[in-house]
Write a structure and sequence with these properties.
By secondary structure, the chain is an alpha/beta fold. About 25% of the residues lie in helices and about 35% in strands. The strands form two sheets. A six-stranded mixed β-sheet has the order 1-8-7-4-2-3, covered by helices on one side. It has a two-stranded antiparallel sheet with strand order 5-6.
Length: about 180
């Protein structure tokens, strides 16, 4: 009985610590290894204000330059279309707590649920587009909690979102790789 309780507790704890995956999709047949340069383009409707637009552009450019690509104001081998949408008063996730304890052979347990308050969030999107065919060959999105806060905090959230989305985008000259589990 104690082993079962210990195993259940361990599984709940490990499940709560699991990293959230960033939804990424791509066309594995697309010859990404031939790409050398990119052009940035805001999504229609783009980021909600010019300062966040600039932060997002700089973050994308910084990561792609580090991966070996060149930035062109126009005429790149691929277009990076970026977007940011603010969503107000999004319901928080339901959380479940599980607890066990015991002393001198007595065992007790509890199970609780809680609804976190509504919060604002930002949805960040990136799409890589072939300029000749206008087809998307790679895309990613990520959601982040958003507060109208200090500029440094907003920059940090945007940088983190972009790094997470581009983590699996190949460096210049490399092919796409399927993630293995």
């Amino acid at each position: 009985m104690k082993n079962l309780l210990l195993l259940t507790t361990l599984l709940v704890l490990l499940g709560g610590c699991a990293a959230k995956e960033v939804p990424v999709d791509f066309d594995p047949a697309y010859p990404v290894q031939r790409l050398e340069s990119f052009t940035l383009e805001a999504e229609v409707g783009g980021p909600p204000d010019p300062l966040n637009d600039q932060r997002l552009r700089e973050a994308v450019e910084e990561v792609l330059l580090a991966k070996g690509y060149k930035a062109y104001s126009e005429g790149g081998d691929f277009i990076v279309r970026y977007g940011m949408e603010l969503r107000r008063k999004v319901p928080g996730p339901v959380t479940i707590g599980l607890g066990f304890g015991g002393i001198f052979g007595n065992v007790g347990g509890s199970l609780s649920t809680a609804m976190t308050p509504r919060h604002d969030e930002a949805l960040f999107t990136l799409r890589m587009i072939d300029p000749a065919t206008k087809r998307v060959f790679w895309s990613a999105s990520v959601r982040k909690a958003w507060k109208e806060s200090r500029a440094a905090w907003r920059r940090q959230v945007i940088d983190e979102a972009v790094r997470e989305m581009l983590a699996t985008f190949p460096a210049r000259g490399e092919p796409f790789r399927e993630e293995t589990e």
